[in-house]
Design goal:
Shape of chain A: globular
Strand content of chain A: over 45%
Helix content of chain B: under 10%
Structural class of chain B: mainly beta
Structural class of chain A: mainly beta
Oligomer: heterodimer
Largest sheet of chain A: 6 strands, mixed
Chain lengths: ~110, ~120
């Protein structure tokens, strides 16, 4: 079993819609969870992180964490074509910034 | 945010040669840096943890003699791919942790190096 599971997509949404990206993880010792966005041929860039159960909002982005279900999600409101990218979820468990990444979900936002 | 610079961004080398990739933290000191490899349409796979002043820690399945890591200062880690083969062609990315920060902070990534072995 992979440590982090993501649907590879592609997930297609129309411009202005809400995009919902999901991620499950297997290690209950996981402590912090991160969402990264990666454009083709570029390095990942951090969108947000979350380590407490519940929701965390930052602008158009909302991360949701449910540790009991080992589930983390990212909602993107008012999706824009520029949001089209691959979204990686990641977690760390003790070693500072030793991240374990999911395979990523490709998001296409259609104008 | 903090800046991590990686060089070169692209390199093409002949099979059997060695290639060195540099990762620098420009505005902070990094006691620990991490090296990842990413194949097309795949996720980032952690290769090794680079520790300043000590030996790197390699993930299972990563050949330490093939991927030499040196972390000689608090701002520089290097990855050398020795005797490169076409199957080593990949996107290599480093990341760094700012010294003194807690664990729940972001990883700062370099721009990545696209290695093509011909």
């Amino acid at each position: 079993q992979k440590e982090v599971e993501q649907n590879s997509g592609p997930l297609s949404v129309p411009e202005g819609a809400i995009a919902s990206l999901n991620c499950t993880y297997s290690d209950r010792g996981s402590q912090s969870f991160f969402w990264y966005r990666q454009y083709s041929g570029k390095s990942p860039e951090l969108i947000m992180f979350i380590y407490s159960n519940g929701d965390k909002e930052d602008g158009r982005f909302t991360a949701q964490l449910n540790k009991a279900s080992q589930y983390v999600s990212l909602l993107i409101r008012d999706s824009q074509p520029s949001d089209s990218a691959t979204y990686l979820c990641a977690f760390n468990k003790g070693n500072f910034n030793k991240f374990y990444f999911g395979s990523g979900t490709k998001l296409n936002v259609k104008p | 945010g903090a800046v991590v610079s990686q060089h070169p961004s692209r390199v093409i080398c002949k099979s059997g040669t060695s290639v060195k990739i540099e990762c620098r933290s420009l505005d902070f000191q990094a006691t620990t840096m991490f090296w990842y490899r990413q194949f097309p349409k795949k996720s980032l796979m952690l290769m090794a943890t680079s520790n300043e002043g000590s030996k790197a820690t390699y993930e299972q399945g990563v050949e330490k003699d093939k991927f030499l890591i040196n972390h000689a200062s608090l701002t520089l880690s290097t990855l050398t791919v020795t005797s490169a083969h076409p199957e080593d062609s990949s996107f290599y990315i480093c990341s760094a942790r700012r010294q003194g920060r807690t664990m729940n902070t972001e990883a700062f990534f370099g721009q990545g190096t696209r290695l093509t072995v011909v």
